[in-house]
Amino acid sequence: MVILLLLALTPALPAREKKDKKQSKMPSLAGIIMKGTGGNNPLGYEPVAGAEVSLQGTDRKTVTNEGGYYEFYELEGGDYTVNVMAAHYAPVQKTVRVTNGPTPTLANVSMLPEGTMLISNTPVGPGTAYVAFAARQINQATTMTGVMSQGFPLQTQEAYRGAIAAGADPLGLSGNPVVSPSIGPGFADQHAIDVNPNSLMMIPSGNLSQTGYHTLGVQPYWLCFNVSGTRLYMSDSSQQVQVLDTVNKNVVIAALPAQGIVTDLRLSGDGNYLLVSVMSGSPGVMMIDTRTNQPTRYLPLPPMRSGGVGYPMGAVMSREGGRVFVVQGNPQSGEVVALDGYTGQPVGACPVGASPTGIAQSVDGRFVYTANSASGDMSVVDATSLGELGRVRVGVSPQKVAVSPNGMRIWVTNKGSNSVTMVDGRSHAVLATVPTGGGPIGVACSPDSSRTFVTCKDAGTVVILDGATGGTLKTTSPLPNSSPYGIAIKP
């Protein structure tokens, strides 16, 4: 039955070794060479045609047909090493045991695009970019109550409605709908690369063409490292912050409930605290001590000065630790609220553009920058006087802001116009608008400021830019069943 099914899936006459044998005779060894475990193909897999398949230590070789099928005849029983090579793919070896039974030995082989590798549980070095890839939203069936959940857990519907009403992108929130990672072969939008849809992509600093993956059991969204790079903090769809040990096989050493949707993670200036922006019934900032990896206090947000309800979309804390700056807003307005870093009491607020979704602070601590998604600009705020100094016009629906470690560049992702705005860190003048893939959201800079990494949610790619000029250095292969969100660079 297995070989009949295999042959039935093969759309054309298979590529075979040259032989003087009857066509009806069963091969000794056969299989399919495929790209990952799926693809947009009626066969239920994406074949690799024209791949050279050879048996190591022999002169036996053949080439796969358009269905990725190959076969070998009249092999003696025993162990064989199958070597597979194809243009634009990494070579693969597979050891099989041929038994010479009534049916052929089957040896299917998955090939990864050139430069792709699976790193599962392997620590990587400083400068490596970690990217959170989450399984894409899939509309679920109608629930028993007759309400179409569209993938959102019913118990959090009100939270999502509130988030959307506040102008937040529902696909950019950590409370995104939970999607089962067990999507089998044959699914119309199955992964083209054999990687779990919920994974961390890792791009080593020494080779931008090489990407690795670490499989996760949850949907990840926002990421942040501690100062030493030994701990990675990750928010997920379960409304918690997981702590991963990046030295010891990336194992999860803690899972901290956030009691709401996490919209951003940011390290304090002194590195002692992780600031977790939480959208909930009591919106605010949870502070996690990075030395103990335990929450120490929660800073609730006051009502907006305009009288409306705002939601925290990000927070930063100066190196001195005296103030925590939190950005909140709705489609009509926005503001930066300054909270006492110890007591949590509000000490001031400054109006900014409408529906702010991102915040960053200058290297010297003098300025706070906000990405205002509804007004399409970036506010420049004086961190001492808490006054808005001006606004820089950027693209459509700006999302997140990053400042290069050398302070020379400010980067703003423009989700609505598929671009990144590069701003001079001294004059605050726009230097360039750089095209990216669809739906750019997350952005981070390398420790030496030489590279800027941008996650493109709609395209499923990561774009790597020159940190000084904005020129495109590399765009990763798209992951069709996943969307990238947060990104963090290992110190």
Q: How would you characterize the overall build of this protein?
A:
The chain is mainly beta and 491 residues long. It folds into 2 domains: 2-111, Immunoglobulin-like (Sandwich); 129-141 and 150-489, YVTN repeat-like/Quinoprotein amine dehydrogenase (Methylamine Dehydrogenase, Chain H). The protein is 3% helix and 44% strand. Strands 1, 2, 5, 8 and 9 form a 5-stranded mixed beta sheet that branches. It has a 4-stranded antiparallel beta sheet with strand order 4-3-6-7, with no helix packed on it. A hairpin with a 4-residue loop joins strand 34 and strand 35 (461-466). The radius of gyration is 26 Å and the shape is elongated.
SSE topology:
Layout lengths: L1 H8 L19 E7 L10 E2 L4 E4 L5 E3 L5 E4 L5 E8 L6 E7 L6 E2 L2 E3 L17 E7 L21 H9 L33 E5 L8 E4 L4 E6 L5 E6 L3 E6 L5 E7 L3 E7 L5 E7 L4 E6 L4 E7 L10 E7 L5 E8 L2 E8 L5 E7 L3 E6 L5 E6 L4 E6 L4 E7 L4 E6 L5 E6 L4 E6 L5 E6 L4 E6 L5 E6 L4 E6 L5 E4 L6 E8 L2
Parallel strand pairs: 1-8, 1-9
Antiparallel strand pairs: 1-2, 1-5, 3-4, 3-6, 6-7, 10-11, 10-37, 11-12, 13-14, 14-15, 15-16, 17-18, 18-19, 19-20, 21-22, 22-23, 23-24, 25-26, 26-27, 27-28, 29-30, 30-31, 31-32, 33-34, 34-35, 35-36
